[in-house]
Design goal:
OB fold (Dihydrolipoamide Acetyltransferase, E2P), alpha+beta, 865 residues, 22 helices, 6 domains, 7-stranded mixed beta sheet, Phenylalanyl-tRNA Synthetase, Chain B, domain 3, 5-stranded antiparallel beta sheet, Phenylalanyl-tRNA Synthetase, Chain B, domain 1
Length: 865
């Protein structure tokens, strides 16, 4: 995030006297630039003063090291008080040797705290009491130089500025307030003093000077046959060339590694950068000042021509951070002559980071300066692909002004020549293939209509002109020419936003929108909500889990290798490499939730979750690779939709531990399979879908205590909706759940589809009383209860009394004497009612006889004696 030293900002815009960081922040907030923090230079506190060395005595030590015992004049206010009351120089031990008597240095007095933190105090060392410390650049956070201390005259300070006792914090800019701001991605021009000064001028009306344009003190050299440059992007990303402007100029005889002037180092430090050397510091300074990234190459390691192209298969590059990188064919590169004698021919990742082969090093004297305009999408993809978030990439991926490269090169060359000596070539290379921004058509009434503030056409014109746009003076619908530094202004709504931002968000009234009339929830939404409410009414707690799974989770559930649920869809960029797949079943992730709860001691569980599962399609096509940056074609979108796997919505539940707790009312009851079946029946009843159960074998359920849930009636009769039953003991052990835990999973979309489409009609309140009849039937123990229940329903419906069965409920299962071995007794309670009469004893007896006869016919059952 950009940092704004106030004195630096004043180079671009007129600032009032006494401006503080808080006042500056308030002005920028009014135009949408958010305050992040206020800093005070480097992290140095306490007394830091200028001192003059008056004595320096080298003292060799037994360890072979030579230290200097120095007497340093730090001014009358900070000097050492002698016994006679006079004030003299302080005694300080220093291990550096790059100074002598008479030099002006920076002294940290006792009580100061340097970055680290490193507190300074008087201490005895090497046989002396060292009463302070003479500081190097790195000790103050000003740079990486730690071999020698700071000698102020060598940094360009005059004797008047460096009198002994002078506050070095202010002298070095370490006491100046610096405002750090947060910039939104669409306003990349604010990553520069130029852009932020423009925003301050918009907010306050202060006079702004655009230093991104040539001025009287900066004359651009003529473009001609300078260092040869070729733009050769044979495979542009999303149809846009990776580079449409490349400016290069040679500077010879420069002391590239010399220290930068003090003012430049001070500004870099305030902006959050460490000074390195003149060439690097100058390119960084111009980038921070104007917003145009630059790069300096060691000319001795570059052979013309420079070629900007895409990477070839197998190419590698060792970047400035020392990392060797395998390049991608989409990476845009800056290279030199392939026929040259250099190692790889690759100079750097365009707009991201240079290579180590051509970097500026000690002894570099001839430089090739580059300032280019690279495509934002190409740079952003390269930076993310190689995980390189450089200062240059942060600016290019947000958009850089294509008019800046020649001005930025000229300013950098001027600084290099002024402070490093040398001579610039008379001709600059400027390969320019840029095109002006397309005009944006705007109805001047649109901002007021969209924002709700009655902006006049004059106000709209004046506001857009202040932003930098060119607006025709006549007409109500105009073609606005947007400035080159605003690539985000591409539609009329973007201009509307600029008007609202500059005129003030506080002027926009708060008006509650009127909701449009609609049809309410869809049938599917109502059905899904009804199912969720029914499950909650059953005592289940609704949960939510991430839909990411691993094959190890399927192993824990005992899912066979040939099971369809093993066909998983892998994420291209998973949140966690341990769970790279999308779930094929809601129960998989719900059981993970149950595992975590049980592991934390919560063993009485009744959990449910509704969510999407991912089912790969057989023969699904491979989706096309979309380029981005523009809307895909209808054919591409259709191909993507065809490749998307099916994602039906499922509902699952897990019950474990105690279903009914013990207390004064009784001994309680553990969870059993019937509880899971009751949940299935409640879900089906909530949408009116007829269901029935059949015995089945399916992981992760117990093979003898599992049933599939089927549609019982209607067009989709027999379709499988899901499964319910007791979990396999091995699964229960693997997950650490209580014994005999039960679970279910249903295809909720299929369940809703199985419900009748017509609205459920309310039935009239019965006018006649109910008749009750119990019947106990003895059947073979291998006959499923559901089959016997179906026979009971069929027999009652076919009785001479008519279809008078209102409800059938199994209330007892008995084995043992007098029931024969291998058989069991199933006792059913029947509720009978007729709509037109009161049932007689003969009617109920007829129903009973019909039920017994049908069970005998289907399953060989008999009435229990």
């Amino acid at each position: 995030m950009p940092r704004i030293p106030l004195t630096w900002l004043g180079d671009h815009v007129e600032l009032p006297a006494g401006l503080t960081a808080e006042t500056l922040a308030a002005a920028l907030v009014r135009v949408g630039v958010e305050e992040e923090a206020v800093h005070t230079g480097a992290q140095v506190t306490g007394p830091l003063v200028v001192g003059e060395v008056v004595e320096r005595t080298p003292e060799p030590q037994k360890n072979g090291k030579t230290i200097n015992w120095c007497r340093v004049d730090v001014g009358p206010e900070h000097g050492e008080v002698r016994e006679d009351g006079t004030v003299g120089p302080r005694g300080i031990v220093c291990g550096a040797h790059n100074f002598d008597v008479g030099d002006r240095v920076v002294v940290a007095l006792p009580g100061a705290v340097l970055p680290g933190p490193f507190p300074i105090a008087s201490r005895r060392t090497y046989g002396h009491v060292s009463d302070g410390m003479i500081c190097s650049q790195r000790e103050l956070g000003l740079g990486e130089d730690h071999d020698g201390i700071i000698v102020l005259p060598r940094m360009g300070f005059s004797d008047a500025e460096t009198a002994p006792g002078t506050d070095a914090l202010r002298l070095l800019g370490l006491a100046e307030e610096v405002l750090e701001v947060n910039v939104t991605p669409d306003r990349g021009y604010c990553f520069s003093m130029r852009g932020l000064a423009r925003e301050y001028a918009l907010s306050t009306g202060a006079a702004f000077t655009d230093r991104g344009l040539p001025d009287e003190g900066l004359v651009l050299p003529p473009a001609g046959d300078g260092f040869p440059v070729v733009l050769d992007d044979a495979a542009p990303v999303h149809g846009v060339p990776g580079c449409d402007r490349f400016v290069a100029q040679v500077v010879r005889g420069v002391d590239a590694s010399a220290p930068s002037p003090a003012w430049l180092q001070r500004r870099l430090v305030q902006a959050g950068m460490r000074p390195i050397g003149l060439a690097v510091d100058v390119t960084n300074y111009v980038m921070l000042d104007l917003g145009q990234p630059l790069h300096a190459y060691d000319l001795d390691h570059v052979e013309g021509p420079v070629v900007v192209r895409r990477a070839a298969a197998g190419e590698r590059l060792t970047t400035l951070d020392g990392v060797e990188r395998r390049l991608d064919p989409e990476d845009l590169l800056v290279t030199h002559s392939p026929g040259g004698a250099r190692a790889s021919g690759v100079l750097g990742l365009a707009g991201v980071m240079g290579g180590g082969e051509s970097e500026v090093r000690p002894g570099t004297s001839d430089l090739l300066l580059e300032a280019a305009h690279f495509d934002a999408v190409s740079v952003a993809r390269t930076a993310r692909r190689h995980r390189l978030s450089s200062e240059a990439a942060r600016r290019f991926e947000r958009g850089v002004d294509p008019r800046l490269p020649p001005v930025a090169v000229a300013r950098a060359v001027a600084l290099l020549v002024e402070h490093g000596g040398g001579t610039a070539d008379a001709v600059v290379t400027d390969v320019d293939a840029t095109t002006p921004p397309a005009p944006v058509r705007l109805d001047l009434a649109t901002p007021g209509r969209r924002v709700g503030v009655p902006y006049t056409p004059g106000e709209v014109r004046a506001t857009l002109a202040a932003v930098g746009c060119t607006v025709p003076a006549d007409g109500d619908v105009v073609d606005v020419v947007v400035p080159t530094w605003r690539p985000d202004l591409v539609a009329d709504v973007d201009l509307v936003e600029e008007v609202a931002r500059v005129r003030g968000y506080d002027a926009i009234p708060s008006v509650l929108p009127r909701p449009a009339g609609g049809l309410g929830l869809t049938r599917g939404q109502r059905a899904r909500r009804a199912v969720a409410a029914a499950l909650v009414a059953q005592g289940l707690v609704e949960t939510l889990s991430y839909p990411f799974v691993s094959t190890a989770q399927l192993d824990d559930l005992g899912v066979p290798a040939d099971d369809a649920r093993r066909r998983l869809v892998r994420l291209a960029n998973p949140l966690a490499e341990q769970q790279p797949f999308l779930r094929p079943s809601v129960l998989v992730t719900l059981l993970e939730t149950a595992r975590r709860n049980a592991g934390r001691g919560h063993t009485d569980l009744a959990l449910t979750e509704t969510g999407l599962v991912t089912v790969p399609r057989d023969g699904a096509p491979v989706p096309p690779r979309l380029t981005g940056g523009s809307r895909p074609s209808d054919a591409d979108l259709a191909a993507v939709r065809a490749a998307v796997p099916d994602q039906p919505r499922h509902v699952a539940a897990v019950l474990a531990g105690t279903r009914e707790r013990a207390g004064w009312w009784g001994g309680g009851r553990a969870v059993e399979v019937g509880d899971a079946v009751a949940v299935v029946e409640a879900a089906a009843a909530a949408v009116g879908a007829p269901v029935r159960l059949e015995q089945d074998v399916r992981a992760p359920w117990h093979p003898g205590r599992c049933a599939r849930v089927l549609v019982a009636d209607g067009p989709s009769a027999g379709a499988v909706l899901g499964h319910v039953g007791e979990l396999h003991p091995q699964v229960v052990a693997a997950l650490g759940l209580p014994a005999r835990a039960v679970a279910l999973e249903l295809d909720l979309d299929a369940l809703v589809a199985a419900a009748p489409a017509a609205p459920v009609q309310a039935r009239p309140v019965p006018a006649f009383p109910v008749a009750k009849e119990d019947v106990a039937l003895v059947v073979d123990a291998t006959v499923p209860v559901a089959d016997v229940t179906d026979a009971v329903r069929a027999g009652a419906g076919a009785s001479p009394a008519g279809d008078v069965l209102e409800e059938v409920r199994l209330f007892d299962v008995y084995t043992g004497e007098p029931v024969p071995a291998g058989a069991r007794s199933l006792a059913y309670a029947l509720r009978l009612r007729a709509a037109d009469r009161t049932l007689t004893a003969a009617d109920t007896a007829a129903v009973r006889e019909a039920v017994v006869a049908e069970v005998a016919r289907r399953h060989g059952g008999s009435l229990r004696a």
